[in-house]
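Researcher: Let's run the pair from yesterday's discussion. Sequence first, then tokens, for each.
Model: Starting with the first of the pair.
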Amino acid sequence: MVEVPAVAVELVELLAVTVGAGAAAAIGVVLEQFGLSAVSGGDLVLGAWAVVMGLLALYVGVVGLGYEQALPRLRRLAGGE
């Protein structure tokens, strides 16, 4: 069986978390735009739902995955641990 270096595993995990954070943040931005256009078009219920879901997706992308997952992994790799 082939041994995979720990640094390679850590880099793959960092890449996956970073892509996930970017995708969640992008979905959040799209939902926010949709929500604001729905509210301005008169559909308050759909607009409010989209704005809340957009805020949740932005929170997951920026804080949950970006700040709490990707940033510590990046610091660990940069520090040589």
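Model: Moving on to the second of the pair.
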Amino acid sequence: MKFTDDQIADIGEEIISVLKTVYDPEIPVDIYELGLIYDVQISDDADVKIIMTLTTPNCPVAETLPQEVKDKVAEVDHVKSVDLELTFEPSWNKDMMSEEAKFELGML
């Protein structure tokens, strides 16, 4: 089944809402506001590809966090499959955080 651009946009918004429920356990801010999600691509068939990073390659949740993201996104209505790519290029830095995240962490 092919989805319209509007349907894809709705699925995308739902995915972002779900991503905002996933937290880095060491930082009280969700991974979306932290800037750990580099890209979310959704095909016409609702196959989803997420490109994300972690705050450091040695992050204690390197094994579990990507799987949690994948599992939660897979539960979004109409999502057919989720391909998650973990990258450290470019490496994450605090400038990638949203203003909201910086405010939460007292950086503003």
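Researcher: Give me one sentence on the second I can quote.
Model: DSSP finds four helices and three strands in the chain.
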